[in-house]
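tool=predict chain=A
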Amino acid sequence: SKNMKLFTIPYKSEKELISFFKKNNLNSVVKEYLNNKNKLHHGEFIKKIVKPYPPILDDLYKIFYIVTKFKRITCMEFGTGWSTLVMAKAISQNKKKYSKKIKKLRFSHPFEVYSIDNLKKYLRISKERVININTKTKFIFSKNRMSLWNGCICNEYVKLPSINPDFIYLDAPDHMYIDGKVNGIKISHNDFMPMSSDILKIEHFLTPGTIILVDGRTSNANFLKNNFKRNWLYNRDKIRDHSIFVLNDEPIGKINKKQISFYLNKS
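tool=predict ok
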């Protein structure tokens, strides 16, 4: 739709991406990428690869771009990894620029990042990466289990943080680490894919202006799109393999109206 053109993420070449991350003091991302990029072209490496996965620069750039361009204040991600570091860095920039401008807006957890994962090992690795970033980053361990949403088989995290984020990044869980069965079906099988319902549960709390970025997971993005009850703008980028949702409801009050103006104001 025409409205979604505003949320189009510009494309950058590999050279431009490397320069971008260096400029933003994310040299560890560049180093890890360069150390692994040639290996990613070989099938044997892909078969042997174990988490933590090496960074994919374009995916990380999307996160940084959305958080800074649209002045996100509270971020929540399903999954942890290099995305956590990049999100924390982007939020630290926003804090420097906008901490005074949001004092009259309703943010209970301003300039914070919440990372949810069902694998403790990778939460620990991510925690070590953000030690030197001036952002309050909280790591939540939660098991992920099979469940139902309106009679449809899906999966859910057992524990969620008590926050109302304005940016949500969906990139987990790995479907092979989902517990349990429903009607005999187990998602942790090669024929299935993750079908997270967590965002549907909190949809009615989210404020207009909220942005969701889904990394790959097209079936899960379709599941969300088909079950959302509110007015979401939606765009899928087939080439770069991501989906974006923007909550386009009418403002719920004066403060939310000011909040949306803050997001879109170029100053």
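The CA atoms of residues 81 and 125 lie 8 Å apart. Confidence is low (pLDDT under 50) at residues 41-49.
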